[in-house]
Amino acid sequence: MSRIGQMPIPIPTGIQVEKKGTAVVVTGKNGVIEQAIHPDMGVVVEGGKVLVTRPGNDRFHRALHGLTRTLIRNMIDGVQSGFEKKLEIVGVGFRAELKGKTLVLQIGFSHPIYFIPPEGITLHVPSPNIIAVKGIDRQLVGQVAAKIRTFRPPECYKGKGIRYEGEYVRKKAGKVTA
pTM for the complete prediction? Predict the structure, then answer.
């Protein structure tokens, strides 16, 4: 049986969770998130906790059980405190800046790259080589950070490019001349 799916999710004060048809809506100080849930999964909100139940013990329902609980937990965490991913830019002359809501990247191409974040995502550039992606939807924050990283992924010889904060890039040895 799924051990993750069986655990009740506590609802912090100031956050409302309600089920509307096959969707779960979570409202908090940072905003509102709505997530469609598989119709086989049962979601019960009672006594300051959310319980997720499943109809059977087959493989498909066991997998959905833990997934559904984790999605709801991430929604609660998102409206309570939000999520953030940081990206580092490594390279001589590589930099980022914000112009309004548009992220402008100078990363070694002959032209700057302009990136407009989707609705619900805010970008911060505390220094020219750090980009912070913030939002209440964990999946969207990760997707936007991955999209920005694809503009110039770290290369394996000098390590130049855009990487996640704390990411280790294995470097190859260069050409050896005799």
Answer: 0.89
- Specify the fold of 83-164: Outer Surface Protein A; domain 3 (3.90.930)
The tens digit of pLDDT for each residue in 13-31 reads: 999 999 999 999 999 999 9
Q: What is the DSSP string of the chain?
A: --HHHHS-EE--TT-EEEEETTEEEEEETTEEEEEE--TTSEEEEETTEEEEE-S--SHHHHHHHHHHHHHHHHHHHHHHT-EEEEEEEESTT-EEEEETTEEEEESSSSS-EEEPPPTTEEEEEEETTEEEEEES-HHHHHHHHHHHHHTSPPPTTT--EEEETT---PPPP-----
CB 148 within 8 A of CB 134: no
Question: Which CATH number among 3.90.930.12, 3.50.50.60, 3.30.2130.10, 3.40.50.10710 corresponds to the domain 3-80?
Answer: 3.90.930.12
Q: 89 and 129 in contact (C-beta within 8 Å)? A: yes
The CATH 3.90.930.12 domain(s) of the chain lie at 3-80, 83-164
The CA-based dihedral angle spanning residues 144, 147, 151, 152, taken in that order and rounded to the nearest 10 degrees: 90
As beta bridge partners, residue 114 has: 104
